[in-house]
Every structure is written in structure tokens, then in C-alpha cells.
Amino acid sequence: MKFVSKSLERIAAITTTNDIASDIKFKRKREKLMAPLRWGIASAGRISFDFANALSTLPEVDHKIVAVGARNLTSARDFAKKFDIPKYYEGYDKLVKDENIDVIYIGSIVATHFEIGMLALEAGKHVLCEKPLSINEKQSRKLFETARAKGLFFAEAIWSRYFESYKYIRQRVDNGDLGEIKEIELEFGFPLADTERLFLKNGGGSTLDLGIYTIQLSLWVYRTEPTKVTAFGKLNDDGLDMEFTGEYKFPNGGISHDNLTITKSDSGEKKSSVEKIRNNISDHHQSPSLQPIFIVQNYFNHPARKFSTKATNTDALIREGKSQQTSREPSSHSKMGNSDVGSCCAKYILCIFNFIFFILGSLVLGLGLWLLFDKNSLLSLMKSVNSEHIERFTEPKLIDQTVYLLITIGVLMFVLGFLGYCGAMRESQCLLSLYGVFLIILLVLEIVVFVFAIAYQDVARDETESFLRSTIKEYKSSGKEEDAVSLMWNQLMAQFQCCGVNSYSDFETSSFWVNNKGSRTIPEACCQLSDKTLIKPLDLNCPYSPSDINSYYMRGCQPALVEFFRNNSNTIIGVMSGVILIQLFAAFLAFCIS
Question: What is the pTM of this model?
């Protein structure tokens, strides 16, 4: 399963880049259509050497290498000297900002393709990027979206797509000369030495490094995506896929088999690439300079000019101001390995949920800050409503406590909403990781409280009783003398139909109540009420002569709360579990996207 998941992720990264170029009209064409296409080479490695060498075989009136950039200055200088390139840079920032460059060719290791590609596109440069385009689908999508938004040419340099032999195969398939294609067999492999391509962090591995050739051919022939992918193979100690075998089943019943390997061999013998389209056609890439095609009836042979065809095609498309529409194949912006669908759904679910959370948090925080800095204006507004029910809750200390509660809740919602929304929209690993960690911390705290309340019910009951007894000592009364503590107690008793902690006698611990109760035996809130907000007793004599009929003076609030939680335990557990599951789901989506 470990190998399959890794393989599917890499396959999704490859197939997402199946468009050779996006089908858009470029916003700007070359100002001088007769001027040479000015190239900037990103990286001074072997593949860049081959490409620069190919460019040197083309007429200077059509192509010109203006500058090269590499990770270190020495490599860039040596590369420039080999090809008489006038400028060289350390790094890629200055390269992409060079105003004399039209298009950037990226020949660096795959792990850096996304970073350099984005730098070039943001700098307004066209891009021809070596295969594979990136290390995952998310990065590939971002590159294409940026190119479309800026109206720039962007293509993946799958060199075999530029071969005349591929055009010949396409023509024969489209004309129906080969009948219906039922099966494709693909083999590609050779032993690699200890190079950067053998490191997982650099985007190495058989699937991503070599699979780009075989997988893209299957999609190119069938012109659709597989409905089922089965994969297995061999990982080394670092988790790098050294060998890969895959089977793809397509909607028309067609099948494709892949066998890839980068396993080292002591003899150094290379395993040739073989591509068969059963039973009609075989494409043997035995030589980089010749691609013979074997047909039952005919033999077709056409010389391939290595990398130069990529350059000439790029030049033609940029001059015309359009993409390579004739080579466009079905995109994998859905289904493949469930990678894209899952990522897209996760992104928009997080965006919508956290945008709502962000707006609500902003409103709550704004209300809290308004109360903090301009409490009187809100009090005036509340009093202007001329409602006794609202005016009862304008007690200054209650407002102060509400302010801090609103600000705390608002800040929490604001931060969570911001991290989740911006992280999902920008697909920022940093923001989404912070969001996920934040949720997990809250989740742990909630679970601790939840478990404590269930496992230590006696302790929780004792703590609740202790809190109630400490606050009832501050109780005053209802009406004009009512403060925040009294308001809390009156609402508690009114809503839960109770009196005191265990009975009405608990109010005797409040010195203010004892000194100011007059002839009352119990507070008005202990009576049966006609209005629970305004605390109006049904029986006006109840505070003076309480009984089991007109009051709840013998039913304490502490046992009433215990009874309430016991009777509603299933609902409370269900709600808490739902909240926890939502948080877990949100954290899971965040980590999936990041």
C-alpha cells in the first residue's frame, strides 16, 4: 500500500502536466517578429548543456542564448564560456529579471522546477520547462494557472512529443488505419549512478523520472484518463521507487502496462525503451537520433534532431501568439489517483467554511472592540429600543465581562478563519500547517475537558458546587440593586427553576441579602414566574410566603444542573463529538492540501 500511494501521487503529478501548452491567446506577442528568440538557461547541468548545444545548431537569426543562471557562479561562468553566452548569473532571480530575455528554459532538478517556473512567470517571461513539470499536481496546476492569468507561453518539454514519429502515429491512429487500440505495453529503464536523480527530495525515482515518457504516451494514444490504476514495485531504504509496474484501464476497454526501473547494474548494461501498441504498431526508441516505427504494412523512419525541435516549436508558437493546440491532450484536472478531486474539494470546503468563520469572527471581534472603546454609545442604542428586556442586561460590570468574552471568541474565530481561508486559497503550507496545529491544540483541550467531566463526575460536581457557593455570597437582589453576579443567579434560577445552591437557605451567606431582604424569605427568582427575563412572580406573595405550589425554594440549582446534564447527556455528547469530528476533518483537509 505504501508503494501504491506513492506511485499514484507521482502519476497524478505527471498526468496533470499532459497539456503541452495551455490553449490560450497570449496577451502580448513578440514586438519584433523577425528578431531572434532570446533564451535564458536556468541551470548549468547536463540537460541544459544538451539544449544549449541544440540551440547552437539553429540559425542565430532565429535563436540566441542571452544568459545562463546556476546555483553557483563558477558553474554559470563555465557554462557561459562553452557556448559564448554574454551574461551569467548566480541563482535565478537576476536571470528571470533580465529584460533582454524572452523565454526561460528550465533544466534544473525537478524539485526546483516550480520555484524557478513561478519566478520566471511572475517576471513576465515565457517558459519551456523540462520534464517532469513538478513534483506534484498542486504545483503543476499553479504553474498553468499563473501562465494563463499572465497570458504567457508555458510548456513542458517532453521531447518525444516533438518527434515526427509521434506525428506519424497520431495520423495513423486518427485515420483509423490501425483499428481500435486495445493494449499498450511500455518498458523503459536504465541503471543510474549515485546522482541527484536518486534522491527523493530532488524528485527522483522511476515513476516521476522515467514514467513521464510511458504514462504520457498512454494518455496521448487513448486521449482520455484511466478509470482504474493498479501499481506495485520496489522502494529503496529512503522510500524512493526504484522499480515500478503499473496497469491502467481506460473507459474504452483499452489497457496500458508500464514497467520502469532505475536499478543500478554492476555491468552497466542499459535496458532499452520499448513501446508497443498491440497488435499493429511498435515504437522503439533505441537511438536518440532515429525513431523507427514498425507497421505491419510499412516501415517509417524519420531523423529526430534531438532538442532543437523543442526550441523551434516554442519559437513558432510564441511568434504566433497562441499555444500548441494541435498537441493538446486531455488534462488530468480530475480523477487521476483521486489526487486532484480530493485536493480541489478539500481546498474549496476549507475556503467556504473558513471564510464564513472569518466573517463571523470579524463581526464578534468588532462588536467587542466597539464595547471596549465606546461602551456608552451601545448602551444608549440599547436603551433607545425602549425595551425592559434589553435594558436589564445593560449593567456595566456585565457589559465589561461580555466585552472580554467577545474579544476572546472573536480573536480565536478571526485567526482560525484567516489561517484556514488564506492557507487554502494560496495553498500555503506554512499557513495550513499553523491552522492544523491550532485546531489540534484546541481539540486536545476540548477532549481533556470532555474526558475529565465524564471520568471525574464527582470532582466536577464538587467544583461546580464550590463555584456556586463562592458567587452566591455576592448576591444582592433583583431590580435596581441587581449587579452582574445577581443577574447571573437570577437567570440561572429562572431558567432551571431552582433556588440557591441546595436550597433557599444558602442566600443567608450573602450579607447584602440578609441586610436588605426586608420581610422576604426568598428572592423573586425562586418563585414561579410570569416573565423569566424581568423576574416577575406569578404570585406576588411568593417572596414573602413561599410554598411548594408557588416556588422552587427547596430545589437547589446544583442538583438541578446535575439533573439537566444527566437527562441531556446523549445530546451533549453528540454535539461535542460533532464539534470534535468537524475539527478533525478540517485539520485533516489542511494537512492534505499542505
Answer: 0.50
Instruction: Kindly state the cell numbers that stand for 388.
Output: 425592559
Phi and psi torsions of 530, nearest 5°: -90, -25
Q: Are 126 and 152 in contact (CB under 8 A)?
A: yes
Strand partners, 233: 244
Per-position b or e across 398-431, b if 16+ CB within 10 A of its CB: bbeebbeebbeebebbbbbbbbbbbbbeebbeeb
Could you tell me the mean pLDDT of each successive run of 10 residues in the chain, 594 residues long?
47 47 40 75 92 88 93 95 96 95 93 94 94 86 89 85 78 82 81 60 68 81 85 76 84 84 52 45 41 43 56 73 42 38 71 91 90 75 58 63 86 91 81 87 86 80 90 81 82 93 92 90 92 88 92 90 89 86 86 72
Cα–Cα distance, 199 to 47 (Å, whole number): 18
Reading phi first (left if > 0) and then psi (alpha if -120 to 50, else beta), residue 179 is in: left
Residue with grid cell 529503496, as numbered in its chain: 236
Domains of the chain: 7-158 (3.40.50.720), 164-303 (3.30.360.10), 339-465 (no CATH), 466-567 (1.10.1450)
Beta strands 241-249 and 228-235: pairing type?
Answer: antiparallel
